[in-house]
Design a protein that fits this description.
There is one protein chain. By secondary structure, the chain is of the alpha/beta class. It has a single domain, classed as Spore Coat Polysaccharide Biosynthesis Protein SpsA, Chain A (Alpha-Beta Complex). The chain contains nine helices and seven strands. A seven-stranded mixed beta sheet has the order 3-2-1-4-6-5-7. α1 (25-39) packs across α2 (56-64).
Length: 254
C-alpha cells in the first residue's frame, strides 16, 4: 500500500531555532504536533534554544502536551545567532527526513505538508515567501543578498534565505561539514545540493506577520557580516570542497 503523496517515511526531524519565543511556542507547536502526527510515523522536534531568557524551553515542553516525549532541546548558554543555531539543530537531528522552520510564528507549520508533497520528486524542498510580512528594509536587504548569491554561487532560486526547508538525510550527508555561521547556511545547503546533483524543488508559502516576541534579525552589523562571509565562504568552498563522487554517479545512473 503506497503512502499518501505528502506522507514521509521513516523518522522525521523538525528543527526549530528560537530565541525568546516563549509567547509563540503554544501556537507554533500546536500546529507542529497536528502536522507531524499526520505526516510521519515517527517524529522528533529539535528545539534549539539560543540563549533565551524568557523560559522558551519550558514553554515548549508545556505546549507539546502529551507529545512532549518527542521534544529534544539543544541549549545555548549565550545567544549564538541564526546560522549556528540552525546548524546545531541539523547536526542533532536523527531523522531520515529533516526540516527546519523559524520559531517566531511567521510560518504556518501546517505548510510542511506542502513541502512534503514534493518529496517523491526532490531531495531538498524549500519554501519561498510569496509576500514577505516584514518591514520594507528587510525585503530590500533580502533581495540584495539573493542577487549576490546568484552572482557568486550561480544559485538561481528565489528567496534563498527563507527559513522553511525540508530535506532527505542525503542532503545533510553531502553538505557535511556545514561551515556557515550566519544565515548563509541556506546558501551553503543550496550550493552543495546543486553541485552534488541532488534534486531541488521550491514551494510558495504564505508569510505571516509576527504576533508576539521581538524581531532579532535585520540589524546592520549582522547583515554586513553575512555579506563578508558570502565572499569568504565562496572562496573556501572553491578551495576545500568537492561534491561526493558517489552521489553524482548515482544521479547519472538513475
Amino acid at each position: 500500500m503506497s503512502l499518501p503523496s505528502d506522507r514521509l517515511g521513516g523518522l522525521v526531524s523538525l528543527v526549530i531555532p528560537a530565541h525568546n519565543e516563549a509567547e509563540n511556542m503554544p501556537r507554533v507547536l500546536a500546529g507542529v504536533v497536528e502536522t507531524l502526527d499526520r505526516l510521519a510515523d515517527r517524529y522528533e522536534v529539535v528545539l534549539v534554544d539560543d540563549g533565551s531568557t524568557d523560559g522558551t524551553s519550558a514553554a515548549a515542553h508545556a505546549a507539546m502536551g502529551k507529545a512532549a516525549e518527542n521534544l529534544r532541546v539543544v541549549t545555548h548558554k549565550r545567544k549564538s545567532g541564526y546560522g549556528i543555531t540552525v546548524a546545531d539543530g541539523l547536526r542533532a537531528a536523527r531523522g531520515d527526513w529533516v526540516a527546519f522552520m523559524d520559531g517566531d510564528g511567521q510560518f504556518d507549520p501546517r505548510d510542511l505538508s506542502l513541502l512534503a508533497a514534493e518529496s517523491t520528486n526532490a531531495d531538498l524542498i524549500t519554501g519561498w515567501r510569496k509576500h514577505r510580512a516584514d518591514p520594507w528594509h528587510r525585503s530590500v536587504v533580502s533581495g540584495t543578498f539573493n542577487i549576490l548569491v546568484r552572482l557568486l554561487y550561480g544559485i538561481r532560486y528565489r528567496d534563498v534565505d527563507c527559513g522553511f526547508k525540508l530535506m532527505r538525510r542525503e542532503v545533510l550527508d553531502c553538505a557535511s561539514p556545514l561551515i556557515a555561521r550566519s544565515a548563509l547556511l541556506n546558501t551553503e545547503l543550496y550550493f552543495k545540493s546543486k553541485r552534488s546533483g541532488l534534486r531541488i524543488a521550491q514551494v510558495g508559502l504564505t508569510h505571516h506577520p509576527r504576533l508576539a516576541g521581538v524581531r532579532s534579525g535585520g540589524r546592520l552589523i549582522p547583515i554586513l557580516r553575512a555579506i563578508r562571509e558570502l565572499v569568504r565562504m565562496r572562496l573556501r568552498l572553491a578551495r576545500d570542497w568537492t561534491a561526493p563522487m558517489d552521489v553524482r554517479a548515482d544521479r547519472r545512473s538513475g
